[in-house]
Write a structure and sequence with these properties.
By secondary structure, the chain is mostly helical. It has one domain. It contains 3 helices and no strands. Helix 1 packs across helix 3 and helix 2 packs antiparallel against helix 3. The chain is rod-shaped and about 75 Å long.
Length: 91
């Protein structure tokens, strides 16, 4: 994946993670799965809720990692551009 793709994906991830509807959905699902994991009627239900909670964390983590990659790529590009300017403006 090239740097432009990383920037685009990072921006998309930021929009997703900052969307109020998505935040609400993550919070709701986390609450439902946490309650079911703690208070499920039987062990199988508690285990399933635990696995769903883990999957939700991994799903959200994917967007967070993509966002971080995009931010790091932006900083890297900024540094490269700064170094180029310094190089060409040498006395």
């Amino acid at each position: 994946m090239n740097q432009e793709d990383k920037l685009i994906r990072g921006n998309r991830a930021a929009h997703i993670l900052n969307d109020d509807f998505i935040k609400e959905a993550f919070a709701h699902l986390e609450e439902v799965y946490t309650n079911a994991a703690a208070r499920g009627a039987n062990q199988e239900l508690r285990n399933n809720a635990y696995f769903l909670l883990r999957a939700l964390d991994q799903f959200k983590g994917h967007f967070q990692q993509t966002l971080t990659t995009g931010k790091l790529t932006a900083k890297h590009i900024e540094k490269l551009n700064s170094d180029k300017i310094k190089f060409f403006n040498r006395p």
